[in-house]
């Protein structure tokens, strides 16, 4: 790491006016369509996704096309704006294929650098919210070498991928194979998507089985591997913003509740022991915001330090989200343990996110590999 110079400017961790306007629009939409009772009802149903909510978010607000250049029909924004959307989606634990579709899959396609053909056409559909694409890799995958369980036999895609997030919402599956990256229609013959029972009911997982499915080759060889790696990097980096949103809601809700809950004729939040616990969470959330914003800014600016910034953000934000959610459940006392209160949704989302796109421990190993430590 080097000190900021004219060539390497210090990251901008503040939110711009446009980003705050985007936040306000997304928050208002989610408050209307994705409040706690609605999310709980969806989690208990066989259809966790709200198509009308996705249409309003993806096409109405234009969130699906934030990372897509204007030439393909997108907004031409950056990872910073997408991070703001994910903060709000995390704050509401909204079931929506935004991280997997509008970030990971979209970034993978963009990394191919195609200006026409099937890649450009698919990007246009994704930006307009007409279709949803999902990278068919396990949600825990961090490296593309571990995310190629499928192969191509006689021009047909064969293989089974377990633990694919949001596969049930996908119209198109981007399948990394030993021969390259293929686009496979989710409803095509030879494609089976079997739902799993996940810990986090707001982000369904599925096993995708490809038995001689027809696919379109989007890239082969090193190009496909590099594109998948870029998509997974963007996913890990912006997942930190979702984790930040989870932690912020947990802290705000806990502070609100402990102000209102009285014991011994005093608000429980006035007890010093609880003040210290909430103050510790606040310090962690502030630090997590800095780490998440740094990762989003590094991805947006194409910084050479982006892999390091992403690894730092994930190594830290995963634990913060889990700790904030655990404190939220505990400091709510008895009601925090009930199904009707949304606290359990945040704890489950935090726990599930903590192993997505690489665990905190694996990201700490990445930091050690990237940072040149001085000789003893």
From TrEMBL:
Keyword Lipid metabolism: no
Entry keyword Flavoprotein: yes
Domain of life: Bacteria
Alphabetical UniProt keywords: FAD, Flavoprotein, Oxidoreductase
Coiled coil: none
Domain Acyl-CoA dehydrogenase/oxidase C-terminal: 229-369
Short name of any one Pfam family annotated for the protein: Acyl-CoA_dh_1
Record-annotated Acyl-CoA dehydrogenase/oxidase N-terminal domain positions: 16-116
Entry cofactors: FAD
Protein family membership: Belongs to the acyl-CoA dehydrogenase family.
PANTHER family for this protein: ACYL-COA DEHYDROGENASE, ACYL-COA DEHYDROGENASE FADE28
Entry protein name: Acyl-CoA dehydrogenase
Protein species of origin: Streptomyces gelaticus
